[in-house]
Amino acid sequence: MVPLSWYLIFAAALFSIGLFGVLSRRNAVAILLGIELMLNSVNINLAAFWRYGNVLQMAGQVFAIIVFAVAAAEVAVGLALVISVYRRRNTVVADEINMMKW
Amino acid sequence: MTTETLIWLIPLPPVLAFFAIVLLTNKNKALSHTIAVGAALLSWLGSMIVFVRALGVEHLGEHPLGGEPINWLPLGESVDTYFKIGVLVDPLTAVTLFFVAWTVLMIFLYSVGYHNFGQPKGDHDHPGLPPHGATVEEQGHKHVVPSIEPMYSRFFAFIGLFAFGMYVLVLSDNLLTLFVGWEIMGLCSYLLIGFWYAKPSARDAAIKAFITTRIGDVFMLLGIAYLYSATGTLSFREIFVEGTLETLASVPSGVLGLSAAGLIGLLLFIGTIGKSAQFPLHVWLPDAMEGPTPVSAMIHAATMVSAGVYMVIRMFPLISLDPTTMAIVAFIGAFTALFAATIAVAQNDIKRVLAYSTISQLGFMIAALGIGAYVAAVFHLVTHAFFKALLFLGSGSVIHGMEHGVLHTGNHKVDPQDMFNMGGLRRKMPITFWTFLIGGFALSGFPIITAGFWSKDEILADAFGHGHWAVFLTLAVAAFLTAFYTMRQITLTFLGEPRTKEAEHAQETPWTMTLPLVILAFFAVTYGWVGIPEHFPALGGLIPNWFHEFVGGTLAEHPEAVEFNWIPLLTSLFVALGGLGLGWLVYRNVNSAAEDRLQIPVLKNKYYFDEIYDRVFVKPAYWFAENVVYKFMDQGVIDGVLHIFGPVTDRLGSIIRNYFDLPVINRFFGDGSAEVTYWFGGKLRAIQTGRIQQYLMLALVVFITIGAALYFFLLA
After folding, report:
1. A to B CB pairs, distance under 8 Å
2. Options 1.10.287.3510, 1.20.1440.230, 3.10.310.30, 2.30.30.230; which CATH number does A4-91 get?
3. Is the pTM of this model over 0.80?
4. What are the residue ranges spanned by the domains of chain A?
5. Long-range contacts at A2-6 (CB < 8 A, ≥ 24 apart)
């Protein structure tokens, strides 16, 4: 059986890729994609800890399912926002959407 | 009721009347005067009963009435030591009480008429001013009648308190309550002289009387304090015993070589000088004529001035211990008698003549006392009280009648008190004339029939008999002048023809005023008969010399009656008749002040005493008040100190403000914190770019930094 650390390393790598995507991509849709990656890396951790812990306790799996639901809702709201911004400002570049400043 | 209780109760009705009128019945004039006169009547009744009972006591001098004194003020020395007060009726008190009761009652009754009770309210009368008259319409015919005094009730309240003061003074058995009565009268005389307070002259006179008598009172209080510290008692019963008197006479006081008795006597005598208006504190009495006439009679006959002489007579056993003091007393008395008589000659105001005559007559009494003629002094005090009250009330009646004339003619420029505006009043005011004549003759010492003759003759006889030549001659001259100015006054006022229209229309006064005159006139004649010397030619011995026996019994050592001598008798006959005759001869044809050759400026202006006092005392006092008290003390020192505090505080405040409040509190803590926050915010806002990725980046960096730090510090 693959040791737990591999899953953890994989999840960390996926999280870092997602974080990099969030920080470096200019397109708001791509940033949302990065967030999805980070959320899913968490899910991997949850599932892995469930599997290598007490299998009879379902909290890990349930938590993962809740994260899916939250992620789906978040993407739905996020994409709606992006579309709304695009309609008003003709851009989805995150750096140009800077009304919320001093 | 026992005599002791009765004596205690005598002073009470007038003071109750005072409070009743002041507090309750002020609005009701009829009720007020009923209460006041009723109270005077009660006191009179009590006094008469006490007087009669006192007459029945054998050796009253040794066994005075009054019972035991009561504990009054607890003294500090121990729990049961008290200052005791009580009442005392010895022969001196008895005769004083007799004339006080009579004159007070008469004056109360007289006041009802004098203040126009029963007359309508004035047209434009004002409280604080004498009534100006009221217009009434009778059968379609308008004329002016006297109007009622606006402050009628107030007057009766004041004289009630005044009478209380006198009764307290007379009945006291100690100097302290005597002094209390003395001061009550001082206050009342101030209130009554200034009764018409809206007149500036009345105000000034009231203040003058109060301050002048106060000067005497301060010395008197010193005397009382000295006496108390020397003997530990103020009770007459305890002072006038041989042991105490001997001690006081032998202890030197250290002042002017006087013994303690001499100094105490002198200090007390200064009180009398103020109260009885003796030289040099005589100036207040003539000015006191500003008050209503019953007040003049109260003050100048029945009460205040008599009180001064009464006190000095009362203290005679003490005063007589020191020959120096006695000489001073005799000198002041004799000098005042002559001095005031000369001024009286040149006065035109009917009341002022009487005022100076009072000063002069009081001088007679004081002089008599100073030469040791105790009984003669008391005798003259009593007879003088009767005939001077009579004369003052008579002069008030004259003024009242003249005012009637003034109201009739409406010419208010005529002074109803100036004797040169009168004349011929004997036909208009017969009762006033005859009673005034009796009073005037008594004052002059008209031989045999009047009381004044007997008392004055006794003083002269005493002065002659004991070899006091200077006093005898001075008093003889003064007596001559007395008769002269009295006749001048009678001639100018009543005899001849009316000199003004007002005098033609003068009217006799109502019965409330004339009845007291008649009663007092009765005493002005008859009271002399109780003191006819035993060896007087023809008359001596017909009536026993009761007065001498009775009053002489007050002293431990009964004074001997002076031997009869023709010289003083002829002298007093000559001065009385000569003065009266000369007065009539000179003034029967004088019709105006310009024709009067005795209007010498120096006499007219009372030897310039008012002016001298003004220069010597009043002006310097004003100067002192203005320059020393006001400008130096108040403005310089007190304000100066205050003005230092002001700037110092101001400076200190500005230092704190400039060096602490403004820089530290305001700049540093107040503005500083705001500026730092502002500056910090200004710096920090650069990182708030609105770019979501930058925020995340920053969060990441911080997270990593904190994480690394935690890791490094906590785990490693």
Report:
1. 29
2. 1.10.287.3510
3. no
4. 4-91
5. A4/A48, A4/A49, A4/A52
Last residue of a domain, one of B604, B625, B647: B604
Rounded to whole angstroms, how far apart are CA atoms B523 and B106? 12
- Domain of B498, in residue numbers: 333-604
Q: Which residue of B has its CA nearest to A20?
A: B697
| Token pair 């530290």: residue | B664
- Chain A CB contacts of B700 below 8 Å: 19, 23
At B235-292, the pLDDT tens digits run: 888 888 888 888 887 887 777 777 888 888 888 999 888 888 888 888 888 888 888 8
Instruction: Note the pLDDT of residue B44.
Output: 93
Same domain, B556 and B699: no
Domain check: are B410 and B338 in the same one?
Answer: yes
- The tens digit of pLDDT for each residue in B172-202 reads 888 889 999 999 988 988 988 888 888 888 8
Distance from CA of A55 to the nearest CA of B (A): 32
Q: What b/e readout covers B46-56, taking b as 16+ CB neighbours within 10 angstroms?
A: bbeebbebbee
CA B103, B107, B110, B112 dihedral sign is negative
Mutation to test the B interface, candidates A26, A85, A97, A100, most B Cβ within 10 Å: A100
What is the pLDDT averaged over residues B38-58?
89
- What is the tally of structural domains in chain B? 2
Residue B386 has a pLDDT of 87
- Cα–Cα distance for residue pair B443/B453, rounded to 1 Å: 8
